Structure formats: C-alpha cells, structure tokens
TrEMBL record:
Domain of life: Bacteria
Alphabetical keyword list: ATP-binding, Nucleotide-binding
Gene3D superfamilies for the chain: ATP-grasp fold, B domain
Coiled coil: none
Domain called ATP-grasp: residue spans: 123-304
Protein name per Swiss-Prot or TrEMBL: ATP-grasp domain-containing protein
GO molecular function: ATP binding; metal ion binding
Secretion signal, residue range per the UniProt entry: none
Organism: Caenispirillum bisanense
InterPro entries attached to this UniProt entry: ATP-grasp
Length: 403
C-alpha cells in the first residue's frame, strides 16, 4: 500500500493493458476511474476493479465526448489521466491546452509524440543514440530498387502522410513495390524501407520521470514465439549494458515521459536491430505484468514520484495470451501459416506446445472469461458459415502486416 492520495484515470477499450493498469493501481490502494470506450457498459464482473463509465467510441475526439469525459473526471477528482493510443493522447493534450480537461494528461508531451510518429526521425535518432540500425532507404513514387534489395519491409514515415494508409508491408520483388506505389492516392513523405529479418524480438521496457528526465526501470524481454508478427510468448532476459545506455540516450533525446518500450529484432547471429520505440503502454504490457514488471506503476511514478519503486522482481518462465495461443494453434491445424509466424513449426509441434503453454505459461492478465471467449471463437471458426473463410488462401505477401 502507499500513502499517496493520487487518483488516476484511464481511458480506452477493455483489454490486457487496461486490465493490468486496473490491477496494479488497485493493488496500490488507489481509487481508479476507468473511462471505457465501448458501445455498451462492461459486465458487473469487469467493473469491480474501478469506478467505470462508458463512452461510445464515436464520441472520442468530439465536443460531446469531451464534456462527458470532463464531467467524469471532475466527479472522480482525478489528478491525471492516461491512455494506450497516440490519437487519444493528442486529444487529451488539446483538451488540456484549452483548459477543458480537469486532470493532467499523463502521457508523452506533444513534441515527443510528433517525433515518435515519424519512422525516419526515430531511425535517425536511434543511430545518433548508438543503437544498431538497419540500412534504411527512402522510397518515393519514382524509386526503383534492385532485386537484391528484397525481401524488404516497407513502412510509412507517418501513416497520416499516405493514403490508403498501412502499417507495414512485406515485399519480395521490385514489381510488388511498383504495384504498391502506383496504388497510393497520396504520398506526402517518402516511405521507409529496410531489409527483412525474421527472428526473435527483444523488447526493452522503461519509464522516464516528467520532473527530472531520469530514465528508470529498464528491463528486457525476449519474444521467441510470434503469431502473424506479434508477440505470442515472451520471457525476461538480461539487458546488455551498451544497449541500455543507447535506450536511455534515445528516450532523453526524443523527450518521452511516462512509460515506453523499444522493439528490436534479432538476426541469425543474435544481434538486435532497432525497429521502433512506442512512448506508451502497449501490446506487451499485460505479458510483462504477468512476469512481474509493473509497467502501470512505473507510468504513474513518472508523474507522481511518491509511487516510484525501482526494484524489479521479474519472474522466470514465459507469459502469453492464451486466447491468441489457441487461435495460432487452430490456424496451424487448418494449414494456414503466416510468413511472419516465428518459428515455423509443424502442426504436431504447434499442438504439443499449445497444450503445454495453456498449462504452464503465465496468462498476460488472467481473465475468468477467457475459456468462454476462446470456446466462442472456436465455435465461430468451425461453423459452416466459416467454411469459405477457412478455404481462403493466405493473403498475398504484399499485404502481410508487421509489428
């Protein structure tokens, strides 16, 4: 327990990262407000950890939504509010600047969010910070790359500068690149291209104090199982001091405050290469929470020093999302395997590992409903209406998303 009277608030959908925040902050004895972005109120069993109000997603970013949010924050007496989304963070900053947000925005500052939005800026700052960066090419409409440059990963510098927008594309030939470029209605900045590496990921979590700028609570986790390019299984690992120093320099240079996490990918020699930094909670928040890394507390401590506790009590073993684990196994049994699944395994090996994982691996955030929702997913996938979907081949490689 803590003696602080901090009253935090959180806005967003109900997912693993939000569940981790609610559990962490209630464990600290803090009165929590959860502004749930959803079309209907949460069931009673999911509202016991915090005072909860529901805001329809289409009201986020609108004057009506701002008024309802402000009313809930005032009634709760919230000191600060945080979120998982850059767009929500920008909305919170705009409301605060206009004087209509009755709580501090506990998110990265606007200038840091702007720098983080650019892949080109991130890549340049990572190199300047001493982090290992892959050779990077700027791709404009008239760019032609030689065949030896492929396969490569193509990303927008900022998704807001390209239409139709996309997160990342895996391309294998110059013809695929030409097709992508010809299909863009708008390209305000050059795209960013880097060679493809398929291997484990290294995720480095940390936080930076708003008042002092100190980076603290750095910890590393290795992702050795991926499903469609995203984390399926991860465990704590040692953090190389040189890499830690580079992460500190990068966090300080880009100006992030609150929690953050770096993503690296390891090549065949085990060398980690910088992919990106996210200045917020993320998809691995729940998993590292299950491994003893209390990222929600470190987030609050960045803005409320009385809550800071730098001691890391990391658990051994693995953490996963069991719904995703079952989904990945089912896809494999159907003969459907994404090029970004890692490692590529036989159906028998996948099934055996899934059974072991359901028993032995830590759930990212234990939810009593996960067996029910998993069963519902399985029934949905096995109904005749899904037969056509099951028979559909894997999408062309040019449309595969990457983390």
């Amino acid at each position: 327990m803590t003696e602080t009277t901090t009253r935090p608030a959180l806005i967003g959908p109900y997912g693993p990262a939000q569940i981790a925040c609610l559990r962490s902050w209630r464990r600290l004895g803090l009165p929590v407000l959860f502004v749930h972005l959803g079309d209907r109120p949460l069931p009673l069993g999911q509202r016991v950890a915090a005072r909860t109000v529901t805001l329809p997603p289409d009201l986020a970013g609108t004057p009506a939504g701002a008024a309802r949010l402000a009313a809930a924050l005032r009634e709760h007496g919230a000191d600060g509010i945080t979120c998982l989304s850059e767009s929500l963070a920008g909305w919170l900053h705009r409301l605060h600047a206009a004087g209509t947000l009755p709580a501090a925005p506990w998110v990265a500052p606007p200038d840091a969010l702007a720098r983080l939005a650019s892949k080109a800026v991130q890549t340049d700052m990572a190199a300047a910070s001493g982090l290992p960066v892959l050779p990077t090419m700027a791709v404009s409409r008239d760019t032609v790359l030689p065949p030896e440059a492929f396969p490569l990963v193509l990303r927008p510098d900022d998704p807001a500068t390209v239409a139709p927008d996309f997160k990342a594309l895996l391309l294998h030939t110059p013809a695929e690149l030409a097709a992508v470029l010809s299909g863009l209605r708008r390209l305000d900045r050059p795209l960013v291209a880097q060679r493809l590496i398929v291997g484990p990921n290294l995720v480095v979590h940390g936080a930076r104090a708003a008042a002092t700028g100190e980076v603290f609570a750095l910890a590393a986790f290795r992702v050795d199982r991926k499903f469609e390019g995203v984390t399926l299984r991860m465990g704590a690992t040692a953090l190389d001091p040189a890499l830690a120093a580079g992460c500190r320099r990068f966090a300080e240079a880009i100006g992030v405050t609150g929690c953050f996490h770096f993503e690296f990918i390891e090549d065949a020699d085990g060398r980690p290469w910088f992919l990106e930094m996210n200045g917020r909670l993320g998809g691995t928040t729940g998993k590292v929470f299950a491994l003893g890394y209390d990222e929600p507390r470190h987030l609050l401590a960045s803005f409320v020093p009385a809550l800071r506790d730098d001691r890391l009590r990391l658990a051994s073993g693995w953490a996963t999302g069991k719904q995703a684990l079952v989904k990945a196994a089912l896809r494999r049994l159907q003969g459907r395997q994404d090029p970004l699944d890692y490692p590529l395994r036989s159906s028998a090996a996948t099934l055996a590992e899934t059974a072991a994982g359901l028993v032995a691996w830590r759930e990212e955030t234990w939810r009593p409903t996960w067996p029910v929702t998993t069963l519902a997913y399985l029934l949905d996938r096995l109904t005749p209406a899904r037969a056509a979907d099951r028979a559909t081949p894997v999408a062309p490689l040019g449309k595969d998303p990457l983390p």
